[in-house]
Amino acid sequence: MSKRYSLWALIILVIASLVLTACGGAPAEAPEADEPAEDTGSAEELAVGIVLPTKDEPRWIQDETRFRDALDEAGYDVEILFSQGSSAKEKENVEALLTKGVQVLIICPHDGTAAAAAAEAAAEAGVSVVSYDRLIRDTEAVDYYVTFDSIQVGAKQAQYLVDRAEGTGNPLYLYAGAASDNNAFLFFRGAWQVLQPKVADGTFEIINSDEAVALSDKAELTRQEEANIIGQITTNWDFNVAKNLAEANLTVAPADQKGDVFNLAPNDGTARAIADVFAADSDVTSYVITGQDAEKASVQYIIDGKQSMTVLKDVRNLVQDAINAAVALLEGNEPTAEGSYDNGVKDVPAIPSEVVAVDADNVQEALIDSGYYSADEFENLP
Ligand code: BGC
């Protein structure tokens, strides 16, 4: 093209974009965080779509990063969208990906039951659905479930508390995840299996849930009973809710229900919020507090003695399992499954992944030597 033509082309382009902006046709602001991440391929090429629950928790940013790394390396085009804690946004994301022609959808639902509608839209379009980390409930339209062993997560948290409790009457404060997340039930179930006998024998005294106190002789709870307890101790997976609840609990607890306390905190974000509240109460002499996800901020809390433990759920394994399942489905094969999870109407074939308890004693080995994080991301590693 001659210089004169390219100059004309440039002028036309500038005028066109000005007209478009004036008509409101061009974005006035930078794209929002939950808008489509960079489009790495044409519609025809886009094979896998991923929908994650929120960018507001480091846990899901970890998953995004690990997915990008693994899929880039494997040479697959992918688009990753975030639902920002909204089931409506989640459904829109799924529809956007279906329009682009994805063949496999990997969804981590914000709300397990509400996500059934999105999964059904995918199934109607002939697209396979892999439920990622959290189970989509009450629908046939979920083909596979890649997950960590969530019962084990709760069991490891509870065992950590049990191993550190001496004598009887140790104050135990219980906290749980969001009732809209099936995992919150599984974590609590795993924890209850280990804690309940130790409440029944007097080792622990539950302080902040009269529903749990009333059920403390019952080894196996119904889902409704679990829901009743979770209703009293839920953090809704939200740091602020966790902080407010812990403050409310300590406000009503007399000094003899404080002292050396034990906290079942469901994940790292809520653990840090709850730990800060307990640390600030002058009647609390010491606290043991659990977590999960091995978020960097919590690893630093563990090194600093502000959080007792976390449960490493190696996201690299989960991402790899999800990709293997997606590739098998794209090639028309059955992904390998080990067991299944009941989603209310269907036993969904599952691919479970192991979890590891981490505290100050094994942080170096579990998180640094394993290559999960690098030492320079932390200060004062033991
Ligand atoms: C995940 C946890 C996470 C929590 C809050 C759960 O479903 O399994 O890893 O901390 O949701 O996002």
Describe the structure.
The chain has 382 residues and is α/β, with parallel strands linked by helices. It is built from 13 helices and 13 strands. The chain has helices spanning 3-22, 58-74, 87-99, 116-124, 150-164, 182-200, 210-214, 223-233, 239-252, 268-279, 296-303, 315-330, 363-369, and strands at residues 48-52, 78-82, 104-107, 128-132, 144-148, 170-174, 204-206, 259-264, 284-289, 309-312, 340-342, 347-353, 356-359. A 7-stranded mixed β-sheet has the order 2-1-3-4-5-12-11, sandwiched between helices. A 4-stranded parallel β-sheet has the order 7-6-8-9, sandwiched between helices. The chain has a two-stranded antiparallel sheet with strand order 10-13. The chain is globular, with a radius of gyration of 24 Å. The termini are far apart. Residues 1-44 have low confidence and may be disordered. The chain binds beta-D-glucopyranose. Beta-D-glucopyranose is lined by residues 57, 59, 133-134, 177, 181, 183, 237, 267, 292-293, 313.
